[in-house]
Design goal:
The structure is a homodimer of 420-residue chains. Chain A is of the alpha/beta class and 420 residues long. Helix content of chain A is 37%, strand content 22%. Chain A contains 14 helices and 16 strands. In chain A, the strands form four sheets. In chain A, strands 3-2-1-4-15-16 form a six-stranded mixed sheet. Chain A is globular and about 65 Å long. The interface between A and B is large, with 46 and 46 residues.
């Protein structure tokens, strides 16, 4: 541990839609792991700091994955010819049930955590299964690998097979235990996680709302993902004002609630999200892979709703966030076409922001490599994307765009998780 | 060179929408490089053949990329915030002009050919630049790496900058020379390649039609890719019955013509394609990346039009065909949603067929690993997609689906290009 100046090609997103690109610049990281500044030249006050020269490599922000299901890691790329509700019954529920087994869970979660961090995803919000002990194990494993964020024990007491269902009372008692134990962790914090309305009785929802209020906890769940799911919610909750209201009436739709998908959120739902400070987590791969639809991301942003990206594995077939960024851009281009160019598509700079600076705010950081942020960063070797070699005529901004579209985990040479 | 039985997990596509999956099966490849059959057990007549045991690896068909631009390889992942016509002016034309330089061309084309073949793309139809000598160089390089297929010197005599434009007379004379020299190659054959209608005068189109007829050559070009492009074609050719007719009236829209994109082909255009035996080459990544739209792939197939896939690099940001297959499936899911479920989306088996057996017919092969086909195959290690290890409970068909969604070039362990 020492004060270090990293020298390299620095790219970060200090504002939505804007990249700052500094060729052969410096980023100062103090021994406490916090960023002290980004510079073109070394300021005098850092004259005696150690320099770590990364040459032509690109230093940029690490990613946050704000919606994914850890126990679905083994299902990546499977069942993609199905839609949400069939896919849950055929693949998801049987697989999640296996996470009752601690040995199995430890093995799979370790591999998942390795793949996440090696792929530059150092923070996020995670759904586990309904099993309390293996969810606690997941927290330990994620923390030990350098990942930080929010993990939820999933709550579900209806409309799933016997082998993957709890009673409301048991679910609430287990959640109390999970919250107490998980809160002891330094980097992983508990989050209240009703699976989604069809899987949670009113009794369970009410209890979870009370728990969230009692402990001052945030909430994550699913919202308006798929037309069949929405119709089902209407049937189950005929008195609700909308899907959003099935959470809101139990205190589960407040400041910092993370709602995955929001593909079909109507005007009222979006208004309530903006008003309550609820986040919309856009999962573009999942929405296409299980044929849910396309979220109107631009509309949410314009309306002042917090938006960030999620891989939603295994609804989405990749957990590598650059893939998810490119998928978000691609989905937005189709919206742009569909709306006769009324909803401008996401630029690369905007897509990147939604996977980095936007969700970093959820963890209390300022945007980009701001002074005082933990150094959450990746170092990328993009040389294989330049067939011309070192003589190529591309700007750092162009190289960065190309990197987002073309990189794979193997191109990431170093990952920093908030400590040096 | 010997007669070999490859043992492994064999997957191939003998019919559209159908995979044959044989766990621990055998594929017999004679020393002439032709397939002699696929078997669950070794038939007596092969008893003395050498066995090459590939264990748990998956043996499947190699890919064909039926529409891509070799001199745009250096542009992969660049300029993706632009649309077609802007992108051509800003990125494509200046870059293609550099391929006047033989040293530069040799260097870039070698890397391209390596990446193609290592990624399992062993056949295809290729656009070069307008430069005859470096196009011949491209043919030599592709052939030397094991790639086979069709290569076209691009023809363009209007609506491009001076530095990347020919006269019609020069373009035709150069094409004659290109055809004569390229025809001497064993694995690479010439194809007549008007860039697209906006770039070709009537005089040039007429001459190219005559050349195609004289030498019995096939044609490749672009068709109905982008709304602005279509309007431009209407302005340039007010007397044409449609975009298709701007080719057809010069004899450039006949049997085996490969037309890239077809995003906005109307009923009449599709009818003429079916009638004339013209192929629609679906380039799903490109159509989204440069925001052109989504081709109605299912409709073309139902109407009996030949359909195959293309990466269209660098309009599309990836030349790895499994990415393109997944992109085709994803685009078809959005069509399925848009058409209120009238156009069923492509299954994994169907998407795979469009990148393998369908285009193989263009080269005279029967579907799948049919007897008498050249052994065009890849061997894939999918073990890293199975976090559970060898004990996992997935069928070969499930493993194959997962492989299509998740594989990267590094997962391909061997590539066979039609010879053992």
């Amino acid at each position: 541990m020492a004060d270090i100046l990293f020298r390299g090609n620095i790219v970060h997103a200090p504002r939505f839609g804007e990249l700052q690109c500094i060729e052969h610049g410096y980023i100062a990281v103090a021994q406490n792991g916090l960023v002290e500044g980004v510079f073109s030249d070394i300021p005098d006050r850092f004259a005696d700091w150690q320099v770590c020269d990364l040459g032509e490599l690109i230093i940029t922000q690490a990613f946050c994955d704000m919606h994914f299901h850890a126990p679905q890691y083994t299902l990546l790329g499977l069942g993609m010819d199905m839609q949400l509700l069939d896919w849950l019954q055929h693949y998801t529920f049987p697989e999640e049930a296996r996470f009752a087994d601690a040995d199995f869970a430890a093995r799979i979660y370790s591999r998942l955590a390795d793949e996440l961090v090696a792929g530059g995803t150092t923070r996020g919000a995670v759904f586990s299964s309904l099993h309390t002990d293996t969810t606690l194990l997941l927290c330990q494993i994620l923390e030990s690998k350098g990942f930080s964020g929010f993990v939820g024990k999933v709550n579900m007491d209806r409309n799933s097979p016997d082998y993957i269902r709890e009673t409301a009372a048991q679910s609430l008692a287990d959640t109390e235990r999970f919250v107490a134990q998980c809160s002891l962790s330094e980097r992983i914090k508990p989050i209240i996680t009703p699976r989604f309305t069809p899987a949670c009785s009113d009794e369970l929802m009410r209890g979870l709302g009370a728990l969230a209020a009692k402990h001052g906890l945030r909430v994550q769940s699913h919202l308006s993902e798929n037309m069949d799911e929405i119709k089902w919610v209407q049937q189950l909750c005929p008195d609700a004002k909308g899907y959003w209201h099935t959470y809101e009436r139990f205190g589960l739709f407040g400041e910092g609630a993370l709602m995955g998908h929001c593909v079909y959120s109507d005007d009222e739902e979006r208004r309530m999200m903006a008003k309550n400070g609820v986040w919309a987590i856009h999962c573009p791969y999942s929405n296409v892979d299980i044929a849910s639809g396309i979220m109107h991301t631009r509309r949410f942003i314009d309306e002042g709703i917090h938006v960030a990206l999620g891989s939603d594995i295994a609804g989405g077939a990749s957990l590598f966030m650059p893939h998810v960024i490119a998928a978000a851009i691609r989905s937005s281009k189709l919206n742009w076409l569909k709306t006769v160019k009324k909803e401008p598509f996401l630029t690369v700079a905007e897509g990147f922001y939604l996977a980095t600076s936007a969700p970093a705010a959820y963890f209390g950081d300022a945007a980009g490599f701001a002074v005082g942020n933990p150094f959450q960063a990746i170092v990328v070797d993009d040389s294989r994307f330049a067939p011309e070699g070192q003589g190529e005529r591309r700007s750092l901004e162009e190289r960065f765009e190309r990197m987002i579209y073309r990189m794979e985990p193997c191109d990431i040479k170093q990952v920093f998780c908030g400590r040096v």
